[in-house]
TrEMBL record:
Any one biological process term the GO annotation gives: isopentenyl diphosphate biosynthetic process, mevalonate pathway
Record keyword Lipid metabolism present: yes
UniProt key word Nucleotide-binding: yes
Organism annotation: Conyzicola lurida
Source taxon at top rank: Bacteria
Assigned EC number: 4.1.1.33
Keywords tagged on the record: ATP-binding, Lipid biosynthesis, Lipid metabolism, Lyase, Nucleotide-binding
Protein name stated in the entry: diphosphomevalonate decarboxylase
């Protein structure tokens, strides 16, 4: 007698990282990953996460293999909690093996959690037979990592605050060709995760209410700037919003600081480029690496100048990329 195969469904999906121009920094509800404010990002056309989910009821527990290495502790637990949610939605009970590869460094402030949970949401929902539309997929991805709600879509994307039903992302049409030069000065993982740092900031920073208010206003200004295709205003708003986010976390207790001396030198380099007539605007996330918004024709010049400022840095040149895609599935 041949054994009944334990594998009942499998799916592979790929999603790209996104970099926020108006940042998400703070949860109104941590269990549902509902943000305090709206945010807006650019999905990149490079460095995707590719994730395969395979249902297998012979497993004692869900398994996460990341970059070929079996994960324990927090990363595995985070995936298990996410799969529990997918199982609850599907009414199914099988455990799963998750095999994932990030092309962007993990935990370095380069949005690995965004590409990771967008890819996992698409692969897991397909493997468990949930037929989700993009909006439902964005809401599901949000539960894994807030920023992942935005990587479901390509190009410029906004993510709405709200309740579980109304907090999803959607594309923002814009007549602007944007490029992003990513300066990787340290690919190592951060010592304090985005989740922990933002929760500490909302709980302890006296600047937090001002951050939330100004981010809501800057999001409206950003949408208006995109609508009139005003590249300079888009860049100025993005740089300002990033600086305000880092100022807010500096006010947390204990303070949170992701910017290093090398980061600051690169942020200054954006000002040097502008003084020389090349429009580049710096933005940073929860890590020391710096991203530069510029026009596609200027990307090589931007990277060349940055390389003189930090000869040890590695550069990625990106444009607007597409949203999550399913590469294959069988139930
Ligand atoms: P980042 O700046 O890279 O987004 P975060 O602190 O937001 O950093 O998230 C990093 C965490 O996201 C990792 O520690 C891990 O728990 C999770 N993660 C990253 N990539 C993957 C992946 N491909 N599959 C599952 N979980 C992942
Ligand atoms: C600074 O989405 O990684 O990159 O929801 O806790 O997983 P969790 O946090 P995460 O936070 C991203 C913060 C940011 C800004 C942004 O991407 O909007
Ligand atoms: Co993240």
């Amino acid at each position: 007698m041949t054994a009944v195969p334990a594998v009942t469904g499998t799916a592979t999906a790929e999603a790209n990282p996104n970099i926020a121009l108006i940042k998400y920094w703070g949860k109104a509800d941590a269990a549902y990953n509902l943000p305090v404010t709206g945010s807006l990002s650019l999905t990149l056309d490079t460095a995707p996460t590719r994730t395969t989910v395979t249902l297998d009821d012979t497993l004692a527990a869900d398994e996460l293999v990341l970059g070929g290495v079996v994960q324990a502790a927090r990363p595995a637990e985070r995936v298990r909690v996410f799969l529990d949610l997918v199982r609850a939605l599907s009414g199914r009970t099988e455990r799963a093996r998750v095999d994932s590869v990030n092309l962007i460094p993990t935990g370095a402030g380069l949005a690995s959690s965004a590409s990771a949970f967008a890819a996992l949401a698409a692969a897991a929902s397909a493997a468990y037979g949930l037929g989700l539309d993009d909006r439902a997929l964005s809401r599901l991805a949000r539960r894994g990592s807030g920023s992942a709600s935005r990587s479901v879509f390509g190009g410029i994307v906004r993510w709405y605050p709200g309740d579980d039903a109304s907090s999803y992302a959607e594309p923002v049409p814009a007549d602007l060709d944007l490029a992003m030069v990513v300066a990787i000065i340290d690919a190592g993982p951060k010592t304090i995760s985005s989740t922990v740092a933002m929760n500490r900031t909302t709980a302890t920073s006296p600047f937090y209410p001002a951050w939330a208010e100004s981010t809501t206003a800057q999001l409206d200004e950003m949408l208006a700037a995109l609508d009139r295709a005003d590249f300079t205003a888009v860049g100025e708003l993005a740089e300002s919003n990033s600086l305000r986010m880092h100022a807010t976390m500096a006010g947390a207790w204990p303070p949170v600081r992701y910017q290093t001396a090398a980061s600051i030198a690169l942020v200054d380099a954006a000002g040097e480029l502008r003084a020389a007539g090349v429009e580049a605007y710096a933005t940073m996330d929860a890590g020391p690496n710096v991203k530069f918004l510029c026009r596609p024709d200027d990307a090589d010049r931007v990277a060349a100048h940055l390389a003189t400022v930090d000869p040890g840095a590695r550069f990625l040149s990106a444009r607007a990329g597409r949203g999550v895609r399913l590469l294959g599935s069988s139930e």
